[in-house]
Amino acid sequence: MRTVELLVVGGGPAGLCAAIQAAEMGSSVILVERSQHLGGQLIKQTHMFFGSEKQYASKRGFDISNILLDKIASLEKITLMQSTTVMGIYEDGVVTLEHKGEYIKVLPKATIVATGASEKTLAFPNNDLPGIYGAGAVQTLMNEYGIKPGNRVVMVGAGNIGLIVSYQLMQAGVEVAAIVEGGPKIGGYLVHASKVRRMGVPILTRHTIKSAHGKEVLEKVTLWQLDDQWNGIPGTEIEFGVDVMCIAVGLAPLSELLWQAGCQMKFIESLGGYVPTRDENLQTSVKGLFVAGDVSGVEEASSAMVEGYLAGMSAASYLGYKLYNMNEVKENLLNQLDSLRHGQMGEKIRKGIAELQIEHEAAASVDA
Amino acid sequence: MRIEQHPILDFKRGKKITFTFDGKQMKGYEGETIAAALHAAGVKSLSHSIHLHRPRGLYCAIGNCASCIMEVNGEPNVRICVEPLIDGMVVNTQSGKGELK
What we know:
The complex is a heterodimer of chains A (368) and B (101). Chain A has 368 residues and is α/β, with parallel strands linked by helices. Chain A has 9 helices and 19 strands. Chain A is globular. The two termini of chain A are 31 Å apart. The radius of gyration of chain B is 14 Å and the shape is globular. Helix content of chain B is 7%, strand content 28%. In chain B, a hairpin with a 6-residue loop joins strand 3 (47-48) and strand 4 (55-56). Classes of the chains: A alpha/beta (368), B mainly beta (101). At the A-B interface, strand 8 and helix 3 of A face helix 1 and strand 4 of B. Chain A: Residues 6-308 form the FAD/NAD(P)-binding domain.
């Protein structure tokens, strides 16, 4: 059995920042990542980030990932375990891992779960045809491996991911036939929407997929218009001959480990599904178990990084490591989160998070 | 369908290697996944649903959805979207659930 002060599960933006913060405060850290690469979804983000300088705004996702990885490499307190999957969290705190066929047991004093989220799908006839991808898969193929998913695509979802990935598809030389959005309005930022519209891509709001067609692979898509009750209107069908459909209808937290650990969970629609209750320091209802990033509520990489720093600091503090200006740093991180959660969408996220707040006894908090 | 020119990204591909897919010789690059190499060769139908045998392709590409499982070097249920391609690999379309040895 290996022992460690802090185990961080997930090497995406939240997990990387959590490990950095905790190691800088003096804690020993094992960072476990299922994939062979660290950086999570950052490594396939070719667009420049918003937010403020503190969250690396105006830098591209893959550059941010490199900055964080350089930092990780400079910290001796961090042990990296890539190609390693967490199998389970047990009642006595033991966490079991699988690494290339080897079974490993770890007993950490504290754990941060930063497992991220997975793509949601959409129900329509033939939605399982090859050629229908989640938006993340299209990004992986194009931006990580340099492979086109096909020649012509219908994008489903006009949130930020749908808009950004449409633009990335065009950069890779794929024709975007249309962007389809079930809601009455474009969900993503106007700046992204106008960019794809300027390139001649129609954004069809109040439309959805009626059916996909094809034998072995996707060949054609039928769309139709929706009424105010979200029912399809017969006679409004439009067909597109496409070999790719990209589904960008949101993400759901990858919360299996939190359920297994016995965390109190609540269904919050605006955060993507079931998410853990937590205190201000991102400690869940299970003592010593912290969360950060999309697994605690689906947002963006920028807020995932800030949550990572906060969870890292809270876990280090829980382990007895302190900063002389910890309250100041904490306030600064909370302010960053507040400013990232502005606007209409941010309002929903703030409301959702407010429903999840719990209090721990003083001994477990950063302020102790 | 590999992207040769991109306005932002510069793809550094590894050594060219060979593998077989359903008995056919194919080429890919070191450092990419089996799914990436198959996709580049235009292979999109990867697995089949157990009861209705409907074709299934890549959906999540990060090892979550199990829509891409294949038999690799005789081992069934390998998620090829996260399995690195290795020179000489034998990749086969899987029929059924696969057997534990």
